[in-house]
Specification:
By secondary structure, the protein is of the alpha/beta class. The chain has two domains: 4-143 and 293-300, Rossmann fold (3-Layer(aba) Sandwich); 147-279, Rossmann fold (3-Layer(aba) Sandwich), CATH 3.40.50. Helices cover 44% and strands 15% of the residues. The chain contains twelve helices and eight strands. The longest helix is centred in the first third of the chain and has 18 residues, at 54-71.
Length: 307
């Protein structure tokens, strides 16, 4: 068996409504959510079918990366784990050690580095606590500008723009999950890395004229990074824009923030404003994207990726 292995780590999302309360409580560090917020979140999951496909999709991504590495002559196991729901990162890491893995490439399924990455590191460390001979962990902090990740985003952005009668006339908008605005003062690289990802994609598709918006801000009293996507849609409508092409650059799989926040909430605001809004398909198991993830893993292992 290969002594190297890859670990794909995602935030996690409930598969069904009966998991929502425990999931939400975990995100709130053990504090149960107020009933009205819990019911609101359940309502969002009901709207997308009663649960999130995220766990299933990450499992499919895991299998696809494993197959890609094997096809390159680098057979090694690839594991998948979640931060806020089973299978938990610490449980999977402990299993990897028990399986004899000697070196782990840990990849958060969030391309841009943010303060949230510390939570993934802590989860990995928890899984190795007490392991007599813990494997070496190579933690991939960021892969926001990985060439084939950018290529995959560019391909799907071209597909997106091609849906419009005049692709050049549609406003191109990139989006990503918001974070508390204080991260800027704290020196978090997240906003800059998002800006670079968007810029690289825009250059690849020949569209220097684009806008960027944040979405899915938390329900707290402190300010969050903006502009908020709903406000930006309304602003563009007031400026006479009638078509918006949205390419999320911070999400790599379908989940609540895509299927509800964009496909239902943002879409509803766009319709009210008289705007045609179209979203690019998510990366999920797109072959170019999967090849890009394999490239990231290979680079972390010190091995050159294929041309």
């Amino acid at each position: 068996m290969s002594r190297d292995a890859v670990l794909l780590m995602a935030y996690g999302s409930p598969d069904s409504l009966d998991q929502v309360e425990a999931y939400y409580t975990d995100i709130r560090r053990g504090s149960p959510p107020p009933p009205h917020l819990l019911e609101e979140l359940k309502g969002r999951y009901r709207a997308i079918g009663g649960g999130s496909p995220l766990s299933r999709i990450v499992g499919e991504q895991r299998a696809a990366v494993e197959a890609e590495l094997a096809a390159r002559g680098m057979p090694m196991p690839v594991y998948a784990a979640m931060r806020h729901i089973a299978p938990r990162i610490w449980d999977v890491v402990a299993q990897m050690a028990a399986d004899g893995v000697e070196r782990i490439v840990a990849i958060p399924m969030a391309p841009q580095k943010s303060s949230n990455a510390a939570g993934y590191r802590r989860a990995v460390e928890r899984g190795l606590a007490g392991v007599e001979r813990p494997p070496q962990v190579v933690f991939v902090d960021s892969w926001h500008d990985a060439p084939r990740f950018i290529e995959a985003l560019a391909i799907t952005t071209r597909e997106l723009l091609a849906r419009f009668p005049d692709p050049g006339a549609a406003t191109l908008m990139f989006s990503a999950h918001s974070l508390p605005a204080r991260v800027v003062d704290e020196g978090d690289p997240y906003p800059d890395e998002l800006a670079r990802t968007a810029r690289l994609v825009a250059e690849a598709v020949g569209r220097p004229d684009y806008t960027f918006a944040f979405q899915s801000a938390g329900r707290t009293d402190e300010p969050w990074l903006g502009p908020d996507i709903l406000a930006e849609i309304r602003r563009l409508a007031a400026a006479g824009v009638t078509e918006i092409a949205v390419r999320p650059v911070g999400f790599v799989a379908d989940h609540l923030e895509v299927l509800y926040d964009l496909d239902i909430e943002a879409q509803g605001v766009a319709r009210e404003a008289g705007i045609r809004l179209e979203r690019a398909r998510s990366m999920n198991t797109d072959p170019v994207f999967i090849a890009g993830l394999a490239d990231v893993a290979q680079a972390a292992l010190g091995l050159p990726a294929p041309a």
